[in-house]
């Protein structure tokens, strides 16, 4: 287990990394950051506009730079974007610089939560279900590879998942510091 005092959330679009991450940070009394939001602030453009002007490769370069900078901090909760794990260098940074939680959810839940979403360019496909299933096939092994813990977020509501995750983390971190001491 990675005992570093950072919490990094990975997982697919609509898993709740941004919304649950913010609440978990409150429970843990740690500052919260969202990678996509930082990219938008630093670029001065929305994610859809970055994809439109620079394509996915341009977005991934910005995502990598931002992730490298943010994972260098100490004591933060960082929500990543669903595709951040695609880059092996990002996986290395996440795995070595913090405790990584895979927020796992079903394609069914993603479809329902993101039904009205217009801010995720990779969802702009004729068949969203097929797109999400294809992404899961490629990405799930990468979430698995990089994570220290899996949290299922399919059924419960945001506050319950956040509270449960925060208490699990407190237990885990407490255990690792007492074992190490
Ligand atoms: N466990 C959950 N139960 C119900 N709704 C959820 C849950 N997790 C996320 N949501 C909702 O799904 C949408 C996408 O969540 P978001 O945090 O943006 O996901 P991500 O950052 O992983 O893409 C939001 O409207 C959020 O309120
Ligand atoms: O899965 C992906 O490749 C992406 C997920 C998005 O973040 P969320 O996972 O927070 O929706 C955002 O980074 C971008 O649209 C690309
Ligand atoms: Mg998000």
UniProtKB/TrEMBL annotation:
Belongs to the shikimate kinase family. Binds 1 Mg(2+) ion per subunit. Pathway: Metabolic intermediate biosynthesis; chorismate biosynthesis; chorismate from D-erythrose 4-phosphate and phosphoenolpyruvate: step 5/7. NCBIfam families: PRK05057.1 (NF003456). HAMAP family: Shikimate_kinase. The keyword tRNA-binding does not apply. It comes from Tahibacter amnicola. GO terms for molecular function: shikimate kinase activity. This is Shikimate kinase. Transmembrane segments: none annotated. InterPro entries: P-loop_NTPase, Shikimate/glucono_kinase, Shikimate_kinase/TSH1, Shikimate_kinase_CS. PROSITE patterns: SHIKIMATE_KINASE.
């Amino acid at each position: 287990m990675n005992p570093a005092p950072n919490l990094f959330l990975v997982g697919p679009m609509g898993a709740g990394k941004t919304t649950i991450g913010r609440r978990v940070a409150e429970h843990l009394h740690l500052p919260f950051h969202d990678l996509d939001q930082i990219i938008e602030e630093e670029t001065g453009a929305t994610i859809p506009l970055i994809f439109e002007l620079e394509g996915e490769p341009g977005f991934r370069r910005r995502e990598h730079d931002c992730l490298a900078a943010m994972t260098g901090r100490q004591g933060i909760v960082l929500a990543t974007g669903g595709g951040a794990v695609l880059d092996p260098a990002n996986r290395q940074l996440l795995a070595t610089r913090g405790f990584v939680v895979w927020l796992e959810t079903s394609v069914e839940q993603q479809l329902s939560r993101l039904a009205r979403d217009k801010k995720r360019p990779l969802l702009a496909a004729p068949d969203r279900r097929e797109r999400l299933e294809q992404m899961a096939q490629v990405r799930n092994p990468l979430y698995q590879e990089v994570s220290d813990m899996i949290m299922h977020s399919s059924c419960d509501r945001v506050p319950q998942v956040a509270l449960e995750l925060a208490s699990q983390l407190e237990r885990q971190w407490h255990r690792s510091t007492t074992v190490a001491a």
